[in-house]
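Researcher: Please translate sequence to structure tokens.
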Amino acid sequence: MKKIGKIVKIALVVLLVLGTFVYLFKRSQPKEIQYQEFKPTMGSISKSTVVTGSIQPRNEVNVKPQISGIVAELYKEAGQTVQQNEVIAKVKVIPDMSQLSSAQSRVRLSELNLKQAQINYDREKALYDKQLVSTEDYERVSQALQQAKEEHAIAQETLEIVRDGVSSSNKSGSTTLIRSTIAGLILDVPVKVGNSVINSNTFNDGTTIATVANMNDLIFDGNIDETEVGRLRVGMPVRISVGALQDVHFDAALEYISPKAMEQGGTNLFEIKASVRVPDSITIRSGYGANAEIVLQQAKDVLTLPESTIQYEGDQTYVFVHNGTEYVRRDVVTGLSDGVNIQIKEGLQEGEIVRGPKIINGK
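Model: Translation complete:
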């Protein structure tokens, strides 16, 4: 039994040694190199760039008051539509004390002048009726009375405007009523009832009562690098995708390319704008982030091949074509590339077999 056990152990060792030898021998043998194979096919190639930007209304205005004061009432809120000249808010005037004092003083002076002019007129009228003064003197006094009345009316109207923001003779055009200058959607109402507001002047832009925009006329606004702006032209088609709306794309047309660059992070960028055509069934909000894909170059119905099959040697480009038994080198003339496929202008025919990259791990 002991002799049999020894024989079994020796046999196992021999088998292990032989197995190891066979494994190492097979590993040491050179493997046949295999390559992927491709055939040139007819297709289209386009080279495009993607510009980051946002969707903005073409016409967006800030509605500001014509006078300073306090917001007394708000008739509209963000999200509501408004027509041109429709009232958005009402402002209560807080008069400037120096202007108010001056207007009151002017009214009192005009009252005195009017009273004196009336006395002079009454006296002259009585004399004129008795034919004791000439017609010329009477008309001069009558004209002075009319001027005094006019000056008093103007002084009174000025006082009402300074004190109340509107005169009794022009209530329909009241400056205390803040009206929208365009028809559209109210994007923002940054004030509340009780807030102080000021009108636009030389030293201040004025307080914005509301921001109104026409959301039926939208544009894409973005910036493109100077290395690509030279390939753009007005009228080029643009494909817009909005991040907030998945799987939704819009057609647009490039309508503006800035003639002047702006520096940002050490890079020169040019502003571009494209008119966006949005279907009525889709709601777009102002400021949505968006990407614009612009086709810079395009070749249709051309012979194409994966760019991974192309070899480079100096200024020459070539591929390896299978002639039935082996791969042979052949020079080709290439054209437009989209980074994946490349146009073959000369050197290949449709259907020929071209060697691609090596197959690694069976792939």
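Researcher: Any highlights?
Model: Residues 97-129 form the longest helix (33 residues).
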